[in-house]
Amino acid sequence: MTSNSKGSKGLNTLSNKQLERIIAEIDQAIEWHQSWYKQLLRSLISNVPANKHDLSDNAHTFCEFGQWFNKLPTDTKKLHPHFSEMGTAHQKMHQGAKVLLSLNEAKSAIPVSLLDQFHADLDTLRDLFEAVSDEFSDVLHTRDPLTGATDRTNLLSHLRKEHERCKRHSLECAIIMIDLDHFKRVNDEHGHAAGDKVLVALVKCIQSHLREYDQLYRYGGEEFLVCLPETELGGAKSFSERLRASVEELNINIGTNTPINVTGSFGIASVSVNDDIEQAIERADHAMYQAKKSGRNRVCVT
Q1: pTM listed for this prediction
Q2: Sign of the CA dihedral 140, 248, 292, 175?
Q3: Minimal CA–CA distance to 284: which of 226, 202, 234, 239?
Q4: Residue 255 class from Cβ within 10 Å (0-12 exposed, 13-18 middle, 19+ buried)?
Q5: Domain that includes residue 113, residue range
Q6: How far apart (Å, rounded) are the C-alpha atoms in residues 57 and 131?
Q7: Considering the domain boundaries, does residue 148 fall inside one?
Q8: Is 286 helix (H, G, I), strand (E, B) or coil?
Q9: Is residue 201 exposed (0-12), middle (13-18) or buried (19+ Cβ within 10 Å)?
Q10: Active-site residue numbers?
Q11: What is the CATH number of the domain that holds 294?
């Protein structure tokens, strides 16, 4: 089962800890269903009495996975379309199990076609479990562990895919390079732990301004790259000016009596249909250095 791009965009709203928790819960759900399946086989093959809940019309609400799934917040279920598919597949699988168990309780022969259909439904559910767990894990493993921004591992491949999509629809996108001003001074004067808190605060600030389909990468050190799909140069400049002002207004608690403030330099490059991603990144980087040379805490456009 392939990864769904809509799903992965929604996952960007989750923190690393939230992703880790959901991955652990889905892995637990896989174990729950394996145990449930073993009990089902005991009932069908060895005539062990079936669990009365498995014979009910709403059996899918009684098993451990069903109880967990029903308690999931609506916002979490909307993060990935596979969650909706999972709920439907889970209910269908339990309905098939109920038919098998009912026939077994009545001492009636179980048609091979019903057994095959049940196993097909069970396989579908397992595929969904694994697909969601794998995709969540992929997102987690390509994130910077400190800030939660996507790391550079797949940056070029992601940007090329976005560029190809924009080319197909004759759209522009924009790239913004962001670098904190005088970050070395923060580390030297307050320590690296304080510097880490500054980076975390910066990323939270940037993420609060992003649309669902925008993407943030930690490019290196205190340098970050933002991709704004379907955005022309003017829109990217307005966005950057708003973000620059928000960064300047941050009061970052570093564990001392006095919070600290930082600023950032922003460089913007538009990526047109016939453009080259690597060259666009270089232009954004050059514009960012122009912002620094011009006095820092400002936005420059190539």
Answers
A1: 0.72
A2: positive
A3: 226
A4: exposed
A5: 5-141
A6: 28
A7: no
A8: helix
A9: buried
A10: 222
A11: 3.30.70.270
